Amino acid sequence: MKIKLPHAPYIASKIAIDLLNSGFVTLQKGLEPVAEGAKTLIVEEINKESALEQKVSEMLDENSDEIEFMQVDRRNMFWLVKKKLAKDFKVILAYEERYSDLSHRILNLIAEQHLIKYQVSENRVKNVIYNAIEEYLKTYEKTQDIVLEKLDNYKRKLIPGTQEYDLVFERLYEEELRKRGMIQ
Prior knowledge:
By secondary structure, the chain is mostly helical. It has 7 helices and 2 strands, in the order H-E-H-H-H-H-E-H-H. The chain has one domain (5-135). Helix 1 runs antiparallel to helix 2 (31-62).
């Protein structure tokens, strides 16, 4: 699953919590600096992919007449062009590899900033970070479904897309993440 910008702080928080709870990592300066470092790299990764997708869209728009003439499926063409340009934008398309690389970069950043201390292998700590990302992405849809069901049963009817709806959704979503121990 692709990480979206609104997810970055939640994933970063989960990473910090999971490192703290791992039993073999000491957070030298608390949760917040670790979460902030992770969030910075996650947002950077999201922005790189967004820039890539923007470039691909522009290229397809510039060549829309040819695409239409040749009766090429735009989605397939989008994927092919994205795949071709991914290396130039330093984007890894395979999610498993991408999250592994991201986990390694997060570990390097927080270690270089002396935010963590550990006496186990680097790979073991990286796996905690990787698993935090994976677990968040797996539970996201379930959590969203629970929140949407709560909104459907809300006493007063909220209109999707309104600011009030978004605020209530965000509050309920964070509440569910707290129940699951994904944020504090």
